[in-house]
């Protein structure tokens, strides 16, 4: 990787709210070769400098969050500010702010940092009126408009995220078409493939303790 880089300190990782389990994630540890090369190129060719974000999708345990962590840490080394937030946590915090106007520094960071990772989209709570989704859409959209990098990860396949049909039956999906269009237009999709690394890890741990 090129460009000026500075060392990454523990306080950077903590400030970015990056969960401890991803601190050791490395580009070379991304198992899906194709995804790894796309990410390597993304970091090399400077597309992120123009605000282009990523949409990482794939099954549970294939390494999407680790890949997002690798990107976030690399950007931090290059001097970008970053914030990691799980979608469920994001919604909880936004709701708190809506109701009690607490933690507004947190929510302004989500809007203003150079790189925002929204991890595990689709697992968060949704209200019937769609207020939560609109809030989330608002943050993502405003970031995209201002060319602030957004990196999303999800286990839900792109064709099931929005309204779709399953065996001839109409299903709502998690997000509205409008939100998905914003994502589709602005974020570069990367499908992370492979078998679940978590299961392997869990099996390995189980073996070690046998
Ligand atoms: N780049 C990587 N570097 C190190 N470990 C990784 C990497 N990618 C995946 N792993 C391992 O695989 C596990 C599952 O990866 P994770 O990113 O949590 O998957 P997903 O987000 O797709 O469910 C992690 O806990 C970690 O042990
Ligand atoms: Mg994950």
Walk me through this protein's architecture.
It is a single chain. With 210 residues, this protein is an alpha/beta fold. It contains nine helices and seven strands. It has one domain: Rossmann fold. It has helices at 10-15, 33-44, 64-77, 87-100, 104-112, 131-145, 158-161, 177-186, 197-208, and strands at 53-57, 82-86, 115-121, 149-154, 164-166, 169-171, 187-191. It has a five-stranded parallel β-sheet with strand order 2-3-4-1-7, with helices on both faces. A two-stranded antiparallel sheet has the order 5-6. A hairpin with a 2-residue loop joins strand 5 (164-166) and strand 6. Helix 6 packs parallel to helix 8. The longest helix has 15 residues, at 131-145. It is globular, with a radius of gyration of 17 Å. It binds adenosine-5'-diphosphate and magnesium ion. Magnesium ion binds at residues 64-65, 119-120, 153.
Strand content: 15-25%
Q: Helicity range of the residues?
A: 40-55%
Compute the number of helices: 9
Bound molecules: adenosine-5'-diphosphate, magnesium ion
User: What is the CA-CA span between the terminal residues?
Assistant: 41 Å
**Coarse structural class:** alpha/beta
If classified by CATH, what would the architecture be?
3-Layer(aba) Sandwich
β-strand number? 7
């Amino acid at each position: 990787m090129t460009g000026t880089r500075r060392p990454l300190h523990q306080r950077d990782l903590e400030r970015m709210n990056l969960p401890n389990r991803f601190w050791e994630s490395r580009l070379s540890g991304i198992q899906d070769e194709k995804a790894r090369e796309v990410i390597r190129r993304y970091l090399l060719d400077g597309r992120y400098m123009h605000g282009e974000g990523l949409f990482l999708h794939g099954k549970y345990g294939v390494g999407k969050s680790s890949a997002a962590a690798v990107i976030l840490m690399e950007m931090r080394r290059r001097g970008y500010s970053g914030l990691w937030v799980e979608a469920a946590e994001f919604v909880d915090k936004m709701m708190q702010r809506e109701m009690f106007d607490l933690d507004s520094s947190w929510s302004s960071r989500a809007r203003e940092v150079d790189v925002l990772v929204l991890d595990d989209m689709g697992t968060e709570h949704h209200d019937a009126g769609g207020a939560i989704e609109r809030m989330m859409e608002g943050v993502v959209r405003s970031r995209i408009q201002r060319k602030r990098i957004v990196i999303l990860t999800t286990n839900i396949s792109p064709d099931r995220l929005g309204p779709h049909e399953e065996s001839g039956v109409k299903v709502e999906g998690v997000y509205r078409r409008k939100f998905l269009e914003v994502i589709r237009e602005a974020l570069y999709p990367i499908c992370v493939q492979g078998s679940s690394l978590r299961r392997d890890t869990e099996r390995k741990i189980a073996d070690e303790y046998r």
